[in-house]
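SEQUENCE WITH STRUCTURE:
===
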Amino acid sequence: MTRQTFTKAYATETQRVRAQRNHEWLSCHAEPMALPPIIESRPRALTFTRVEGQHPEPHDLERVAQHLGSCHGSAWHGCLHKAQLAKTYVSDGHVLAGFIGPRAAVLRQRFHDGYIASAQALDATFTLLRKTAGRPATFYKDSNPRNILITPAGPLVTIDTDDLTLAPFGYDLAKLVVTLSMTHGPLEDVQVNGALAAYNSAAAAHHPRLGETTLTQLMEYAELHGFLTAPYLGRGDYRWPWTRVRPTPTPRRPTCT
């Protein structure tokens, strides 16, 4: 008999509260994002309605990209058009961390841990971050394919709400490109280009300015994700280092180990 629920445990009560509040915010502001309903909340644990489905694979990239663009555009139209990527943003009492500062801190740690080869390469990542400051803000929810399910009926369901911050348009799509590549191997250029076109079209349905993410910007975001994801190689189905599976052509980039 198939279980009708699943329970996720959290190491701390703070993490449980954050995940639940993220779930509530996304349910309100990220339409058409589908989330499994929370049916019980207790200290350090959330119980959800179980959803059956398959995790996306490379051939699903364009479809998931279109879904992300629609969700991101909806959130911008509803409230995030007031947000700035360099600052935290309070929406309905929920605090979304800014984009630039938190990632600069993690990238600095990656440098100290040896995943970024030189101080010059680290400075290059900071330059990429600063370039985003004036771009439209949406949210980042970690579009690892293991956090998404495609159900038998067709809808895409997001099954993880642990992380939620501000991010520029295209950043969450870049995470999907990186994680699919590191899991399954190199993607074809046509897949990446098709995904970006689908993403931009869906985002632009909410405002033309939102459909302006370029391939260069997407790949710059992917380089950031490559550094941020590097410590997980060999775990969680990450089989390939990003340095070996980058789509081509890619923009000039900092060097990593």
The radius of gyration is 18 Å.
